[in-house]
Design goal:
about 260 residues, alpha/beta, Four Helix Bundle (Hemerythrin (Met), subunit A), 2 domains, six-stranded parallel beta sheet, about 45% helix, HAD-like_sf, HAD_sf, hydrolase, HAD family hydrolase
């Protein structure tokens, strides 16, 4: 880790700043209730708890052009469900808004607000996500210089263009960015392959980040071994407070020593 080169930080959102699973569970429960109330033809199909997941997987297969647009995929899956149940597909937008409102209701990990305050006072922060979370709706937008999503960019992590776009937004060279995230494939290996540095947030022994990329439908960058973490230089931390502590210590130790005038 070359602390003296860091001029900006890009941060993943889901499972880095807040747990993603509770957001998804709430959002899908709200969507399910709305559909059953406003599109009664879906009730029999939605009695199977795996239905929403199956329709989302089908949308992913049928709409490769939406691969980087999770909101677009969700809309397409809702529309297909409505059509199959002989309900008005125009209801898809209202149904999605119900889902999306709950998806944006996040609960930060305990240390995040304090750590973001400290980090943003030291360096410019940019959000970089493959998902459809909004930093402003999450209540953390004031910490960031800006945000980039895969849907807006048309390219998702681990593609180098995603990290280069974050660097451009921060106004620095990619080599001057420290990217922070929980997913080994998408965040760590992807950032290093793009010429940035990386910090891997591992909050528990089970949260190794290896499966998260597959869950979102994105694969690992070619030529990078997800198991041999030693092959990719990175900083590993338990949370954002530890990140700030190590960053502060590393930057202090990398400063040139003051010459004595005595």
């Amino acid at each position: 880790m070359q602390f003296n080169r860091i001029r900006a930080i890009s941060l993943d959102l889901d499972d880095t700043l807040w747990p993603f699973r509770p957001c998804l569970v709430r959002a899908e429960a709200a969507l399910l209730a709305w559909l059953q109330a406003h599109a009664p033809g879906t009730r029999s199909v939605l009695s199977d708890p795996t239905t929403l997941m199956a329709y989302r997987a089908r949308a992913h297969e049928r709409h490769p052009e939406l691969r980087a647009d999770l909101s677009g995929l969700r809309r397409a899956s809702i529309r297909a469900l409505l059509e199959d149940c002989r309900e008005d597909p125009a209801l898809a937008e209202a149904a999605f808004e119900v889902f999306f409102a709950e998806r944006q209701r996040v609960e930060l990990f305990p240390e995040v607000a304090q750590a973001l305050t400290a980090l943003s006072e030291r360096l410019p922060l940019v959000a970089l996500t493959n998902g459809n979370a909004c930093i402003h709706k999450a209540g953390v937008g004031h910490f960031f210089k800006g945000a980039i999503s895969a849907a807006e960019l048309g390219v998702a992590k681990p593609e180098p263009q995603a990290f280069h776009a974050a660097a451009a937004l921060a106004g620095v060279h990619p080599s001057e960015v420290l990217h922070v995230g929980d997913d080994w494939h998408l965040d760590v290996a992807g950032a290093v392959a793009a010429g940035a540095q990386a910090a891997w947030v591992v909050r528990s022994p089970q949260a190794l980040g290896i499966a998260a990329g597959a869950a979102h439908g994105f694969g690992p960058p070619a030529g990078l071994d997800a198991v041999d973490t030693g092959a990719v230089p990175h900083l590993r931390v338990n949370d954002l407070q530890e990140l700030f502590d190590q960053l502060s210590a590393g930057m202090a130790s990398s400063r040139p020593a003051q010459r004595s005038t005595v």
